[in-house]
Design brief:
mainly alpha
Length: 443
């Protein structure tokens, strides 16, 4: 009976991971289509203004949200929504107010700085609106993940991407940074309504928590868990986006538009790591078998390492082949893409391992890798930006992501008593399983 239960759990994980991965692949194909339209028709300045709003709005969401969405996933998965609902409502209302007030104050202070030399006044309001809508949408999506409603989660993601891509086509015909920005915010608001419908909707009997977990979750307890994750999440955000903020300060909005597109293209490599990490947090949090938790984390990381490495060089090769011929306005993105390659691969593995550590209930262990990563980013930015410019920003970012990824692997291995080679090399059991699968296929 135990064996059957384990197989059921693992099949659910595989199903949800594949469904999420499949949705992300479709999203990426749609994004590639819209990117082709944008790269061929939209001036880098317009793309830069839109990217600027998303960068700052996303920053407010990440820094001021206290990483409550990770807490929501964990507590909804373990204690269920009935026991978590009141605390989620209180935290959502409070943090929404914080994002609005502190975000507006920050932009008021910085509006005349070199970071915003040509930003229209209305775009500052758009940054707040985007940050606020992103936060509320993240909460709704976190509830769907915690309840393992990955079908609804994937449908919302896919619908959002289709609408964003349709908007990109409109922008290609009628280029307007304002229309692009406010249209993106309107889509986020629509997805909040759609995802909330998914939260309310149930097919069949609602799952009940284990008897020892069947009690109301206190708001302070959720905040405590969130704060453990928050330092790491903020530093990870800073490490991943420091280069974008630097480019805004040292280059024009057009050059930033080109650099942001390089970042966007390279981040498409994260479709599988994001899919697996999204599924693995709620699944591991709900598992009681420590051996099963470890096995799931290790094999997931191994697959991520193989697929991400192949995808990285495939995308880079395709960019060098097509961008100069088809999108000459954006050929400056090739340099940053090349420098980002190694870091993108290592940070992909840390996405899975970091969420695995958080699922064990120890998100604070993710702080050290992010601290080391951002320290490396600052140091190498100082060293490489003067001689290399924008390429130096990309190189410093890549080194920092590599440092963060390797540190996360080492900490996971120490915490779980796992040899680091197990994260990369297939075990005898896995090789035998692959051979068995191929032999069955030949028959």
């Amino acid at each position: 009976m135990r064996r059957k239960k384990d197989l059921a759990v693992h099949s659910d994980i595989v199903r949800d991971s594949l469904n999420t991965f499949g949705t992300n692949v479709i999203n990426t194909l749609i994004q590639i289509f819209s990117a082709i339209v944008v790269l061929s028709r939209v001036d880098p300045v317009i793309n830069g203004l839109k990217a600027q709003v998303l960068l700052w709005g996303g920053g407010f969401c990440t820094v001021l949200s206290l990483s409550v969405n990770s807490s929501v996933v964990y507590y909804v998965a373990r204690y269920k929504i009935e026991n978590s609902k009141l605390s989620i409502e209180k935290l959502t209302a409070f943090i929404s107010l914080v994002i609005t007030v502190l975000g507006a104050a920050t932009l008021f202070v910085l509006k005349d700085s070199p970071l915003f030399p040509s930003t229209p006044p209305s775009f500052f309001a758009a940054m707040i609106a985007y940050g606020l809508s992103s936060f509320v949408l993240n909460i709704c999506m976190a509830i769907l993940r915690g309840e393992n409603k990955f079908k609804s989660y994937n449908v919302v993601n896919l619908t959002q991407q289709i609408l964003i891509s349709a908007l990109a086509v409109v922008i290609a015909v009628y280029p307007s940074a304002s229309l692009w920005v406010w249209g993106t915010i309107a889509i986020s608001l629509a997805m909040i309504v759609f995802s909330f419908y998914g939260v309310l909707r149930w097919n069949g009997t609602k799952p009940r928590p284990a008897p020892e977990d069947d009690f109301p979750v206190k708001t302070g307890k959720m905040v405590g868990y969130s704060l453990k994750s928050h330092v790491s999440n903020v530093l990870t955000y800073a490490n991943s986006n420091l280069g974008s903020y630097i480019v805004q300060g040292i280059a024009g909005i057009g050059e930033y538009g080109v650099y942001s597109k390089a970042i966007t293209v390279m981040q498409k490599i994260w479709i599988l790591p994001d899919a697996v990490s999204q599924v693995i947090l709620s699944r591991i949090a709900g598992m009681k078998d420590k051996g099963g938790q470890l096995k799931l984390a290790v094999i997931s990381t191994k697959i991520i390492a193989y697929v991400t490495t192949a995808a990285t060089f495939l995308i880079l090769g395709a960019a060098y082949l097509f961008v100069p011929l088809l999108f000459p306005m954006y050929k400056g993105m090739l340099g940053p893409m090349s420098y980002l390659t190694v870091g993108i691969i290592f940070i992909s593995c840390s996405k899975v391992l970091g969420n695995s550590i958080a699922a064990y209930g120890r998100p604070e262990l993710n702080i050290l890798p992010t601290v080391l990563g951002i320290a490396a980013n600052i140091l190498f930015s100082i060293l490489f930006i003067p001689p290399l410019g924008t390429n130096g920003v990309a190189l410093a970012s890549s080194i920092s992501m590599t440092v963060q990824g390797l540190s996360c692997m080492i900490i996971f291995c120490i915490f779980s008593h796992t040899a680091i080679y197990r994260l990369f090399l297939p075990s005898k059991e896995e090789i035998a399983a692959v051979k068995s699968a191929f032999s069955i296929k030949r028959r």
